[in-house]
Amino acid sequence: MNNLVESINELGKLAFDNAVAHGFAGTNVQDEKALLLIHSEISEAVEYLRHNNPNSDHIPEFTGIEEELADIIIRVCNYAHAKGFRLGEAVIAKMKFNVDREYKHSGKSF
User: Fold this and answer.
1) Is residue 106 classed exposed, middle or buried when 0-12, 13-18 and 19+ CB atoms within 10 A define those classes?
2) Long-range contacts of range 43-50, CB-CB < 8 Å, 24 or more positions apart?
3) Torsions phi, psi of 55, nearest 5?
4) pLDDT of 36-69, one tens digit each?
5) DSSP for 23-62?
6) What's the CA gap between 76 and 96, in Å, rounded?
């Protein structure tokens, strides 16, 4: 699990460093804007789904949904790193918590 934590946190650093290098990030992160950008990636995935999930225009060896899911992860990791959140640790803790939840605890389905 420690490798997973390190990998998630490293991905955040790489995403943040790349965003800074391209003029998209800095020390003054706007929380609402960052979260809305994550939401926009979800909307883009839905649009690919509505169009039968064709290959991505940017990375054609992957489907559009695969690309957008990657964008979601990148944006989440970038935001977490910029804010100093312990995302890797939080993911592991939440997964451990979910293991012990009762069956269909909220009635939601996947």
Assistant:
1) exposed
2) 44/68, 44/71, 45/69, 45/72
3) -65, 150
4) 999 999 999 999 999 999 999 999 999 999 999 9
5) TS--S---HHHHHHHHHHHHHHHHHHHHTT-PBPSSSTTS
6) 20
Per-residue pLDDT tens digits for 72-94: 999 999 999 999 999 999 999 99
d(C-alpha 110, C-alpha 108), whole Å:
7
In this structure, whether the domain defined by 12-99 belongs to CATH 1.10.287 is answered with yes
Give the type of residue at 29.
V
Phi, psi of 52 (to 5 degrees): 65, 25
| Neighbour count for residue 101 (Cβ, 10 Å) | 9
